[in-house]
Amino acid sequence: MKFRKRETDTKVDIQMSAMIDIVFQLLIFFLLTLKIIPPEGDFNINMPIGAVANANDDIPPMDLKVKLEANPDGTLKQLYFGSRALGNDFPFCFERLNQDIAAIAGGQQGYSDDLEVELDPDYGLHYRYIVKAISACRGRIQGDQQVTYIEKIKFAPVDRPE
After folding, report:
1. What one-character-per-residue DSSP string does 100-154 give?
2. How far apart are the first and last CA of the chain?
3. How far apart are CA 79 and CA 87, in angstroms?
4. What is the pTM of this model?
5. Mean per-residue pLDDT of the chain
6. Domain annotation for the chain: domains and CATH numbers
7. How would residue 108 be classed by pLDDT, with cut points 50, 70 and 90?
8. Parallel, antiparallel, or unpaired for β 145-148 and 139-142?
9. Contact at 8 Å (CB) between 119 and 156?
10. Pairing relation of β-strands 150-155 and 112-121?
C-alpha cells in the first residue's frame, strides 16, 4: 500500500480587500454618529454682585389627605377629608369632598401645581368608592368642559388585614 505525501507547505490566502472595506465602513459609521460636546466650565462671563435675598413668605405646598373607611361588606363606612368627617351617604359625601377641594384649589380658576392629595382607602373597600374619590379630588365637569382642581393624586401604603 502506497501512502501519498501530504503537502505541508500549503499557503492560505487571506482576502484583505474585504476586511479593509469593513474597517473603513465601521470607521465612517463611528465618525458620523459621533456627537461632539463643547467643553464645560470655560465661561468667560462677568456676573453682577448679588444682593441679599429676602425671606420667602410663600406657603409651603399643602398635602391633602382623604381617608376612606370600609364596612366588613366593602361598602363605605366613613369618608374623611383631613380630620373632618364627610359622612357615608353615597354620592353626596363625594360632592362635599369635591366642594371642599374646590375651595382649597381656587374654585373656578383651575388647578394648582403645588397641591397633592393622598388617598388612604381601607383594604376591603369596593373599587367604585375609590374611583369616585379620585374623580371628586381631580375636578368636575361643567357643561362640556372639564375643570381640573388637582393633578397630583397618590395612594397611601395599604395595610392588609391579618
Report:
1. HHHHHHTGGG--EEEEEEEEEE-TT--HHHHHHHHHHHHEEEETTEEEE-EEEEE
2. 90
3. 6
4. 0.58
5. 80
6. 64-155 (3.30.420)
7. very low
8. antiparallel
9. yes
10. parallel
